[in-house]
Structure prediction request, 404 residues.
Amino acid sequence: SEETNFKEACRYHPGRWEFGSIHGLWPECWTCCRGEWSDPGCSYGPHRGYKKDSYPYLCVNHGAVNPRSNQVDFFCGAKFQEKNNDDEQCRAHPGYLKFVGGDRIWTCCQEGEEIAEPCQSSSHRAIEWPDPDAKKYFYTKPVKVMSEGEAARQKKESFQEMAKTTRFFKPISDYNAVENAYREKLKRDKETEEMPRICLNWACHGQFTAKGNHQQACRFHPGVWDFGHTGVTVQQVIANRERDVMWKPHWTCCRGEWLADGCSRSKHKGPLLAESEGRTRKFNWPDERAQVYFRKVVSAAWKEKLEEQHTYSRGQVARLFLEYANDRGIQGQLRTDALPALCDRLKLHLLVCSDDISYQFKFQDVVCEERIAERIVDDGAGYIDKDKFLAWWFAPIQDIRPGD
Prediction:
């Protein structure tokens, strides 16, 4: 009443309810005092409002939460007065909209979005603090700049439409859990700042401590290794002919060779040495085998062409091997020094450009001075063993460059 309404009669929250971050980056709280939902108001002032029997409540009846958007597709939001409320006042869709055959259909009545009238009747419902459901009155305000007239019209119509955007229905991560995890990380970092760590930056692999780490401490390659492409066959490489080099193998950051020192400086990055087992690489730069950690990226068109024209099954490779051995071999057998020509027959120089990195190393093993591939397929008498060749040709990278 007017007689009991004085300057500090009302204790209230002048701010809005903030739902918090879905990633737990800030907490749910009142924006005025950062208090919890059930905390008493943080400010005092006179009461403001309407007579109780004429108070314009806002209905919060709504449909089910749409699992695709984590929002409701129907929200009543109508103004009503308690004295005029009855079981037929509120018309609503208790379901949500779902795409069926390209059309949006209400799950409650199976009617289309455009033609369906609300299919359920009930009385309007309002909620008051401290009931947690009262948080539904807080919704995301539009950021569109509007004139005064547009703002007035928006305010008049906004609750019914904008209440659908309330973050009440969206999952929110626990701020305290995220904050505590962050504090635990800071605490652990402090405790281990003088313990040795191993750097995983490419071309570094040195040891460091967090305390002595700084922006100029590590010299490394921030790019990735590009295997390059020569466009020449195995036999041309062995014969040391003039190469038609399309692009040379290089680091993408500086175009340097594999053994080139790092081209950039930054902080070291890596785990504690005592905890590095299982978290570090089996091979490390400058070991050439460390190139297995880089993946080739090829176009979809080139990949399709390789698969259609130059990718063979085990049976097809076995047949091509026998045909080539009968045509070029000695009594159906191929000497190991015929391996480069056989690989050219199977288009190894093109398969090198596929996204299967094993062919890159098979190519290297054929052309290297040590003739690694020839020793692998040798039957012990200087000839190529068909089964050994097939096993080598289809071997995955883990077998071509096994760990120590």
Q: What stands out?
A: The mean pLDDT is 86. The CA atoms of residues 31 and 222 lie 43 Å apart.
